[in-house]
Amino acid sequence: MSEKATIEIDGKKHEFPLIKGTENEVAIDIKTLRSATNGIVTIDPGFKNTGSCESAITFLDGEKGILRYRGYSIEELAEKADFLEVVFLLIFGDLPNSEELEKFHSDIKAQSVVDEDIRKIVDAFPKSAHPMGVIASLTSALTAFNPSSVNVNSDEDMYKAIVKILGKFPVLVAWTFRKKNGLRLEYGDKSVGYVENILKMMFQLPNEEYQFNPIVVNALDKLLILHADHEQNCSTSTVRIAGSSHVGLFASLSTGISALWGPLHGGANQAVLEMLEAIKEDGGDSKKYMAKAKDKEDPFRLMGFGHRVYKNFDPRAKIIKKAADEILNDLGVEDPILNIAKALEQEALNDPYFVDRKLYPNVDFYSGIIYRAMGIPTDMFTVMFALGRLPGWIAQWKEMRLNNEPIGRPRQIYVGETLRPFKAINKR
Ligand code: ACO
Q: Which of 219, 218, 233, 195 is closest to 58 using CA atoms?
């Protein structure tokens, strides 16, 4: 392949270098486009063709259905690693040895207490508040209790900020859940694993010892791993772009949480379950909803289907579908919604509308069914996603800051009114 791309404008040729990644992805480097062409920019709504950065964290090939964190396949990580190892891998670039992992966990545990005044903030939310709104606000509120900004040039400062948020975020998640359910706000248990602690903080009752169910612990571990990073998706790009203004880590993360909430992104797991429930209530006629999804006059979309980058299958969906079957079976849960989901998937895989558009189930088509079997209410699903994505956001924020990336500030093509004289109010 040539080393340069040529753009010809008004008979004048401009050359731009091609850059190649370690997996042979190629990009035209247009950093000098504006200056070379006297102000011409590119336009690409939704960034469908635009790389925003060079990154060494996650590789995915949407055509081949490949997803790797730091070079390790998602299939292998989901089977052999635990979530905390994956957190370390994403943030620091390599799998930890046992001493590193133990130290990392112990540093996180040392930070897993939040300022008692945060209880007052939690208490001030109505029980009806959506947990994603609450967790985004609480994450933002952490900045008020930890006002010193991170010196990104100090490894120690950076490390402290990272273990702080990894320690405190699960507490905020648990408190969000407990407040909604009228339960006393509890702290965790330092004697158990990171994922066990999340479950215990969420579900322990004041009058009995929490009993761990290894099936539930393993299921949550796997789900968190599958959600841990996904290169430059909407919420991650939001975190990177917010952080590029040099606002701190916690403030950047709260913007990512808000971006994740939307039903086209992380909010899809809640939307899928609501859709499956609605189909069930409506008599379970999946064909009717397939027709709605295909009808261009109808805004309905088959939630949990389609992906911006996966145009073959989402490798996470494959793992999750198998896990859903196993987990429901192991827990002895019969959920008619799983059958509706399978019927919809089968129909979509054989329907030209979905086949032609390369619309396959994504990670969230089956995740809600597992969360439900674990006893997690529907409106907490996206919060669980945020718990999983936290290390990805942190790793991407850290990479962006250490690469000293410039502030994110896209251009536009203005299509509004040209200059016009001001009209007095009585003349309008
Ligand atoms: N149901 C029905 N039709 C769909 C769906 C769907 N779920 N998804 C895409 N299409 C159709 C579009 O209408 C469009 O059709 P057209 O070419 O006739 O106009 C075509 O497929 C391409 O769709 P786009 O919206 O252009 O694809 P884009 O890459 O912009 O969007 C997205 C991807 C947002 C994920 C989309 O597929 C969608 O809305 N899916 C449902 C929501 C969802 O599951 N989101 C979770 C994504 S995974 C994650 O964030 C964790």
A: 233
Residue with tokens 């289907």: 305
How far is the centre of ligand 1, averaged over its atoms, from the C-alpha of 305 (Å)?
7
Among left, alpha and beta (phi > 0; psi -120 to 50; other), residue 103 is: alpha
Helix (H) or strand (E) holding 144: helix 131-145
d(CA 201, CA 77): 25
Strand partners, 18: 28
- For 132, counting Cβ atoms within 10 Å of its Cβ (0-12 exposed, 13-18 middle, 19+ buried), the class is buried
Does 221 contact ligand 1 (Cβ within 6 A)?
no
Query: Ligand 1 mean position to 147 CA, how many Å?
Result: 40
Query: Model confidence over 297-335: pLDDT tens digits?
Result: 999 999 999 998 998 889 999 899 888 888 888 888 888
Bridge partners of residue 68, in order along the sequence? 59, 73
Helices (H), 234-335: 234-243, 249-261, 268-281, 286-294, 315-331
The pLDDT tens digits of the residues spanning 177-186 come to 999 999 999 8
